[in-house]
Design goal:
Chain lengths: 263, 263
């Protein structure tokens, strides 16, 4: 059975599709077979990224490993959409070492179903109290957490749905901050403190985040990631930010612990 | 009749709610009366921001101007949701100088209806080819625009809907880059070139963007913006980034040209 990684956060623009693609390429690079499912298929960022990669491979006759990919566009009929997602998921889970599922920054029955398949749920968020607001409501004066908010509640509900299906309800929920800047101490400290407090209450673990680095986004049209850059000649220059980004990704993949699980 | 500003982009996390709030406070600061409508009311970032402001005003007995605000949560019945939005909008448009509408980072009938009310549509996006992808499909090799994509198409459709209602179909569509960093020349130049080309094809104008500045997000829990900081004593320090942010906001508000329209 495959190890299932869902990348989710109802907050928009936190880095879900970017992280999905970089996880896929990292896992392929480690020799694992990967099935990827785009549940945000109207926007289709991941589908476009994978498509650009296939086109680049064909255009330049490069040896670029690819996932087996499927996009499930929403049709307006939530139940029918969920049936198609379930079918695609069961097929990939039986045939691949890892399944990576990218979800939209909004609430949809398919996204909830996708979350209920997760062995590992990866939730990126911006280093911002605005992003934290979808995980927890914070009391302004005291900076104490009043209660978990709607995305944390949704994750609880999907764990319940999983248990109702008779599957183990244990989901390894990993939260990481994304687009971290090197500036500003006070905002960062507030976020660290609040996330640490929330992780105990809601049951997720926090791992070191990803820096704000152009390398994470500049090769979208080519379908490439920094993992691919070690294969010459792709025509992109190497610098310190790439080295740091490579380490950040390795930390993320190791934290998920997939390679041990597979085959 | 009010001047209606819609802040929209189907891409998640581009800064819609942040810009909505900063526009609201800037317009209030110029002495205009503002009605604000949150069409993304499950996530409710703008509603929470305005609510935090009201709580801060009450807690510290400050003279903080507030908009008249309403949130329209989605109920699952698109037609009923749209009827409630229409009613709230007609009421605010009759009684205020400006109506600001924040929309979600996804497609929803209410969001389309909201877009069709716009005199000015403000579309923020990250300085990233990933964000550009929802506006236009770009050919990787030549960096030429193949065709507009789904958000640009949606905007066209809402202009048509507006014309079908017998209203003037002229919408002033403003696109600006957000969270601009001071680094990286090549990615920035690509974005500038592609946006300039797209603006001619699709019919929007580009204005100078907003920098990546912590001041735009660090006062969310207090309900404050940098516009409020000139009133002492709010306990936040002032620096060069605030001065630059103030100028960026002034450029945005002036580009919209509201104050001339009202009263
Ligand atoms: N670590 C990073 N460094 C620099 N840019 C980043 C990083 N992570 C993401 N981005 C950029 O931030 C924006 C948001 O990322 P992305 O589209 O992956 O988020 P998302 O959560 O999938 O958004 P949505 O909610 O729309 O699905 C994109 O423009 C992307 O290129
Ligand atoms: N100019 C800026 N400088 C620094 N941070 C910013 C800036 N603009 C927005 N942010 C931060 O970026 C994130 C996304 O902004 P925001 O939530 O306003 O976007 P949105 O488009 O409303 O997202 P959604 O699609 O979820 O509605 C938030 O964490 C916000 O605090
Ligand atoms: Mg995405
Ligand atoms: Mg928003």
């Amino acid at each position: 059975k495959a190890h299932v990684i869902v990348v989710g956060n109802e907050k928009g623009g936190t880095g879900k599709s970017t992280i999905s693609m970089h996880l896929i390429v990292s896992l392929l690079d480690r020799g694992l077979s990967v099935g990827s499912i785009d549940v945000d298929a109207r926007q289709a960022t991941l589908t476009r990224y994978v498509g650009n990669r296939a086109a680049r491979r064909d255009r330049a006759e490069l040896d670029l490993p690819l996932p087996e990919h499927v996009a499930i566009p929403p049709t307006g009929d939530g139940a029918a959409d969920c049936a198609r997602l379930e079918e695609a998921f069961r097929d990939f889970a039986a045939r691949h070492d890892v399944v990576v599922i990218d979800t939209p920054g909004s609430d949809h029955p398919m996204s909830r179903l996708g979350h209920s398949f997760a062995d590992t749920l990866v939730t990126p968020l911006n280093d911002s109290l605005v992003d934290l607001d979808v995980l927890a409501l914070v009391e302004p004066g005291t900076m104490k957490i009043r209660r978990p908010s709607h995305y944390a509640e949704m994750v609880w509900e999907t764990k319940k749905a999983r248990a109702m299906r008779g599957e183990k309800a244990v989901v390894d929920w990993i939260v990481l901050r994304n687009r971290l800047s090197t500036l500003d101490a006070r905002n960062k400290r507030d976020m660290e403190k609040l996330l640490a407090e929330l992780s105990k209450r809601v049951g997720f673990r926090i791992i070191p985040g990803l820096g704000e680095r152009v390398i994470y986004r500049s090769m979208f049209l080519e379908g490439l990631t920094l993992i691919d850059l070690k294969k010459k000649p792709l025509g992109f220059d190497f610098n310190m930010s790439h080295v740091a980004a490579r380490q950040e990704l390795r930390t993320l993949v190791d934290a998920i612990g997939v390679s041990a699980a597979a085959g």
